Amino acid sequence: MKLLVTNDDGIESVFFHELISALRDAGHELYVVAPQREQSWVGAGKTRTRPVKAVRADRGLGCATWIVDGTPSDCVNIGLAHLLKVSVDGVVSGINVGMNCTLGFILASGTVAGAWEGALHGLPALAFSQDVTVGAYEHLKEHGGKPDAGLQTTLRLSAARAARMTEELLPATPSRGFIVHNVNFPYPCRAHSTVRRTVPARFFVPGLFSPADDDGTHRLIWKVGENVSPPEPLTDHACLAAGSISHTVLDYTRLGH
């Protein structure tokens, strides 16, 4: 397949590179359009208060690559309209550093939004995210985004699974259907980890900002929130906690039903 690949952690993300490598090894024709820098939690926002620059670049990814100084939605929109000279079969976004599950975070996710922008263009779309422990995340921050050995092993297994799921899900997804497949990999992810269909967990997530500093500024802080999900059906959050791969079909035509 011909695929546009994007993410929200930026062009230099190791997680992103692993996904590209797995998709390329599976024989797909890739076109990478990624943010210049991290764009986590920007949701489906588009840059409207300044011009957005897209630059052709060589990052050694083995495919046509552009870097955009905007959001994931900017990347996909500009890529499909102006950068790619071919029609693609779908949009793949990820692999994100950290899970993108629960109602509290799916709507804020730049990773999911990159896929959603593909759906807004009538294309089948997938978003992939990798759950990490607090320790693994701190290691990433302290070592310039480089995973430790355990996370690197999990990441490669997750990327391989992502490539297989792309081959399975994209052809089976109708075009112009406003559907995004949101897939979250557990930590650790194993070769035999099962894929389970899930729904978004219901979390309240208040108080995501610190109290004001002396200069009146507030800073974003990490907080999972309060889980108020019913026991059934299986949620994405519970699925990850059980060590399985969560597959949530986000069918936006069902909003309001």
List the helices and strands and how they pair.
Blueprint: E1 2-6, H1 14-25, E2 29-35, E3 54-57, E4 64-68, H2 72-83, E5 90-97, H3 103-106, H4 110-120, E6 125-130, H5 134-142, H6 149-172, E7 179-185, E8 195-197, E9 203-204, E10 226-227, H7 236-241, E11 245-251
Polypeptide structure, described:
- The chain is α/β, with parallel strands linked by helices and about 260 residues long.
- The protein has helices at about 15-25, 70-85, 105, 110-120, 135-140, 150-170, 235-240, and strands at about 1-5, 30-35, 55, 65-70, 90-95, 125-130, 180-185, 195, 205, 225, 245-250.
- The two termini are about 35 Å apart.
- The mean pLDDT is about 95.
What attributes characterize this protein structure?
alpha/beta, 257 residues, two-stranded antiparallel ribbon, single chain, Stationary-phase Survival Protein Sure Homolog, Chain: A
Summed up:
The protein is an alpha/beta fold and about 260 residues long. It has helices spanning about 15-25, 70-85, 105, 110-120, 135-140, 150-170, 235-240; strands at about 1-5, 30-35, 55, 65-70, 90-95, 125-130, 180-185, 195, 205, 225, 245-250. The protein contains 7 helices and 11 strands.
